Amino acid sequence: MPFMYYYPMTTDDLFTRYTEILLRNFTFYDWKLKHYNVIGGHFDRYYPPKEIRSNSIGVITTSNSGLGYIQGPEGTITYTAVIDGIKTDIIFYYLHPVGPSKSIYTISTNPSGMVKYDLDPANPEGWNQSVMVNVYNKD
Question: I want to staple 58 with a disulfide (CB 3.0 to 4.6 A). Which of 47, 49, 82, 117 is the partner?
Fold first, then answer.
């Protein structure tokens, strides 16, 4: 996967964090944006799409540029889908901290266990990160 394919931003600033997140919906279900909560940083060029259809990609970019570098990008983005006849929230959490802590990208659902996911790369590193979050139907 090319680094920062959709979002070619780089920096040598020790405190600025750019993140390109590609949410790949490999489920049988279309997702509709329910809400998002930005805890740190801000969305940049690409905001969470209103819908991520089955077998497509949603691109989201975040950074903490211009915010005094208090913390890196962090937040949740919640989509809703009807999975196996059950209204389900698909909750994506992201954290790309300033400092030595590792970045975190997770998917959870309410009710729990409705999908599974993996990351590419499995352990994103560096100031500027591009991560593919692959979401699949549960087994």
Answer: 49
